[in-house]
Amino acid sequence: MEHRYLGNSGLKISEIAYGNWLTHGSQVEEDAATACVRQALDVGITTFDTADVYANTKAESVLGRALAGERRESLEIFTKVYWTTGPGGPNDSGLSRKHIMESINASLTRLQTDYVDLYQAHRFDIETPLEETMQAFADVVRSGKALYIGVSEWTADQIREGQALARELGFSLISSQPQYSMLWRVIEDEVVPASEELGLGQIVWSPIAQGVLTGKYKPGQAVPEGSRATDESGGSQNISRWLRDDVLEAVARLEPVAADAGLSMAQLAVAWVLNRPNISAAIIGASRPEQVTDNVKASGVTLDDDVMAAIDDALGDVVVRDASLTAKQTPGTRPT
C-alpha cells in the first residue's frame, strides 16, 4: 500500500482508504462489516472514513468496534458532521457551534477514540455564519478532539472563503471530499485548481461509480440480484443515474482497456482516480473481504498516457463534467 500526504499537511494517509457509507449498520451484518475492516488492515489500509449520518450513527459504532484493539497511532480515522442525526430536532443538523460540539463528542464515543485525525464539514451550511462554523472547528482542533479539518462537496468559492477564515483562526483546511470517478468529473475545472492553490488534497468517494465501473451491470439486462442497485435503503437511488444503456455500453468498452493493462475493471477505475492531479486518496467500500483485496491492487499502479486516452475514448460523451453541479450539493435549507 502506497501512502500520500493529505494536501499540504504533514499527515500521510493510505492512498486507498476504506469507507463505510452504504454498508456498515445498513446493507451488511456486523460480522461481515468487521471482516472487511480486518481485511483492509491486512492489506495495508490505514485510513478509515465514516460519518455520523451513516446509518444514523450506527456505522461509526460498527467501525469503532471493528478497530478496537488496534494501535491508535497507526490509524487515520476520519468522520464528518452536517447531516441530521438522532430524532431530527431543530439542532440535530448543520454546522452551528452547538451541533459541531455535540457531534464531535458523540462521534468520539461511538468510534472509541479520544480524537479523530480528520473532521470534515459534510456539506456547506448556508444557515450558519461561516465565522461561527470555522471558530467551532478551530476550538475542536485546539481541544485535541480533531487533528485536522476538511470539507466535503464544497464549491471552489466556499473553499476559498473557508480557508481564509481558517487561517485567520490559526488552522487550515487540508482536504476536500467530493464524488469523483471516470464518469463524474465535475471537480476538475474549479474545485481541483482552487484546492491546489490553497493546499487541500482530494479524498474522493465513489471512484467505481457505485459499482457501475466494475462492469457487472449490463445494457439491456436486469440488475443482478443482491447488488447495490436493488438496495432500497440508499444504494439504488445513488446508482440509478448510471444505469442507462448508453452509459453501460460505454463502460463495456473499458473491458479490453483493463485487460490490456492487466487490471480488473474495478482496479482500473481506482487506478485512474489515483493517477489524476490533486488526489490524496480514493475511498473504497465493500460488502465482502475479497472486494477489498481486489481494489487495493490499484495502489501504486501507473497508467500511461495511452491508457488514459483509451479510457476517454471509450467513455466519450457519457462523462459528466459540469462544474456547476458541485454547487447543487449545497442544501438550500438545513436538513431536518
Automatic annotation (TrEMBL):
InterPro entries: AKR, K_chnl_volt-dep_bsu_KCNAB-rel, NAD(P)_OxRdtase_dom_sf, NADP_OxRdtase_dom. Residues 15-314 form the NADP-dependent oxidoreductase domain. CDD domains: Aldo_ket_red_shaker-like (cd19074). Belongs to the shaker potassium channel beta subunit family. GO terms for cellular component: cytosol. Pfam families: Aldo_ket_red. The keyword Oxidoreductase applies. This is Aldo/keto reductase. Keywords: NADP, Oxidoreductase. The keyword Oxidoreductase applies. GO terms for molecular function: oxidoreductase activity.
